[in-house]
Amino acid sequence: xxxxxxxxxxxxxxxxxxxxxxxxxxxxxxxxxxxxxxxxxxxxxxxxxxxxxxxxxxxxxxxxxxxxxxxxxxxxxxxxxxxxxxxxxxxxxxxxxxxxxxxxxxxxxxxxxxxxxxxxxxxxxxxxxxxxxxxxxxxxxxxxxxxxxxxxxxxxxxxxxxxxxxxxxxxxxxxxxxxxxxxxxxxxxxxxxxxxxxxxxxxxxxxxxxxxxxxxxxxxxxxxxxxxxxxxxxxxxxxxxxxxxxxxxxxxxxxxxx
Length: 258
Prior knowledge:
Helix content is 64%, strand content 3%. It has eight helices and two strands; from the N terminus they run ββαααααααα. It starts with a strand and ends with a helix.
């Protein structure tokens, strides 16, 4: 693919970074749209988005560094070269979510609406960001003979092995996230799932990501639970937690309305 979008003299714009920025813009646009629609305080939500993005980026990078510690011990400056890829979604999501929870409690904001808004905005932004992964070649798949397999032959690609047809797992994730976004957007318009969309997102994405991990070909780290990768373990745990929360909410609603 094309890891470098363009170069002007000594200035380089990496495709990965471009789509990461585009993902943030898409997320911000949607968050502000929902903020106005649900009549939430725009200034506070904008601040929340900005600081949660910073917290998420730090968490995503830190998680990746911890998973690939020997590489960064040998070259500590590589920690700061995020244009080479190396952001773990779960690390960023969990770090950002903790920050959001603390901010909501401190500012006394409506937790249900904001969490639902995040649950819808995350797959939209994530779907855009994964396109950047595809161009950079990171998060690549295993060798494949399927008609839609993709060969990464650019000399700066992060995919391995070079010029061998691989599962385009980045596009699997991108399309899956866009589909989740559409599902949640549809559910939000029924008005029957207020306060639950974040858990529906966690459950669907956790299961989906666990499935896509089967086709990943990059280093997944040591298995955490038997044959499960770190991401699969987190994904299944997250899905189970969300399912329990949805069940508890359903029981409480039935009791309160019964």
